[in-house]
Design goal:
The chain is built from five helices and seven strands. Helix content is 36%, strand content 27%. The longest helix has 25 residues, at 2-26. The chain has 203 residues and is α/β, with parallel strands linked by helices. Strand 2, helix 2 (61-73) and strand 3 (78-81) form a beta-alpha-beta unit.
């Protein structure tokens, strides 16, 4: 049911600015790209000619089936792998970029996912991310902590209070320019939004 409702539920947010963030972010994708949590394929229209291949990792079968149908109709060269982001079935240093959009809030073990992303990226490769995060406003952050359990139930496992930027840095990435914005058409708990790139540095 969640997979069937995902695109209609997110349509207003995409039109109100989320699609623009995706487009701007993915102009940085080059070479062989891995997208974790490919979902229903919201990023497909924004991969350009600088991308040779996109490998989509999606563990949920209903999402993967919808992504598969969209991929077949697109110009993107790629394929789908059914696997969790915590256990990426790829060799070390095998991708030029990894894309994560609205995924790191939901994975069961964010630290493990970031370690796996670091492992499969080539030295100097980039993690391109668009994620909602813990607020810099202390009052809102406290509400995120209080209501995170309810948010997880209501939003299919989504955590609204993760310190994602700090965790990316701790996982061996060097943050570049990070754009802060608000998640359009979203409740206050999930409005703090970040978009940017982080370069893989040596372990």
């Amino acid at each position: 049911m969640f997979a069937a409702m995902y695109d209609p539920m997110s349509a207003r947010a995409e039109k109100a600015g989320l699609a623009g963030h995706r487009k701007k972010l993915l102009t940085q994708a080059r070479g062989r790209v891995l997208e974790i949590g490919g979902g229903t394929g919201a990023n497909l229209p924004y991969f350009d000619s600088g991308v040779e291949e996109v490998v989509f990792v999606e563990p949920e079968e209903p999402m993967a089936r919808r992504l598969e149908r969209k991929l077949a109709r697109s110009a993107v060269q790629g394929h789908i792998v059914r696997a969790p982001a915590e256990e990426l079935p790829f060799e070390d240093a095998s991708f030029d970029a990894v894309v994560s959009t609205l995924v790191l809030c939901t994975v069961s073990d964010q630290g493990r996912v970031l370690a796996e992303v670091h492992r499969v990226l080539k030295p100097g490769g980039k993690l391109l991310f668009l994620e909602h995060v813990r607020s810099e406003d202390e009052k809102l952050a406290r509400w995120q902590d209080r209501l995170n359990g309810l948010n997880r139930v209501m939003a299919h496992g989504c955590n609204c209070n993760r310190a994602t930027l700090e965790n990316i840095s701790s996982a061996g990435f060097e943050l570049g320019n990070v754009e802060r914005d608000r998640f359009p058409k979203a409740p206050p708990l999930v409005r703090p939004l970040v978009a940017g790139a982080a370069e893989r540095v040596a372990a």
